[in-house]
Write a structure and sequence with these properties.
single chain, alpha/beta, three-stranded parallel β-sheet, two-stranded parallel sheet
């Protein structure tokens, strides 16, 4: 309903460089400090995430969103808490144990920027990326296609 977008825009200082993007209004200025990406449904969201994912140095999300992408692509993840849902605590534990994820500071969310900056400067962010990169196979679609062809194709 637009409440989150409204709150984000309201909380940011003027001149922060926020741009808003959606499927109907694609991003044109890649120099923006922050892009708020709006979507109407899961299909739009998947397309937008896939479009932006190559540009990410890290991402912030609950541990039920894109956790497998973080593991497979070596993309550091800052996990929003509390973990909600049956798989979120398991994903959180997996990401943290693998060294790919860290919990975002829930008690002081304003510290996240400093945390990421510190991690970038002291090498922690790079270590998080290295912990995930190549640690898991990322060819699931190809593996499924090969399996189906091998077991169910008419010869």
């Amino acid at each position: 309903g637009g409440q989150l977008a409204w709150l984000v825009e309201r909380q940011l200082a003027p001149g922060f460089g926020l741009q808003v993007s959606s499927a109907s209004n694609p991003v044109t200025d890649e120099s923006s400090s922050l892009t708020l990406v709006l979507h109407e449904n899961r299909r739009e969201e998947n397309g937008l995430v896939a479009r932006f994912f190559p540009q990410f140095d890290y991402f912030v999300a609950p541990s039920h969103e894109r956790s497998n992408w973080a593991m497979g692509l070596g993309l550091p993840m800052f996990i929003l808490t509390p973990t909600i849902g049956p798989f979120a605590p398991l994903n959180r534990n997996l990401l943290v144990a693998a060294g790919v994820g860290r919990e975002a500071p829930a008690d002081e969310p304003g510290r996240l920027g400093d945390m990421v900056s510190d991690f970038a400067h002291d090498g922690t962010l790079a270590a998080m990326a290295e912990a995930g990169w190549g640690s898991e196979p990322i060819d699931g679609f190809q593996a499924i296609a090969d399996y189906l062809l091998d077991h169910f194709s008419a010869e």
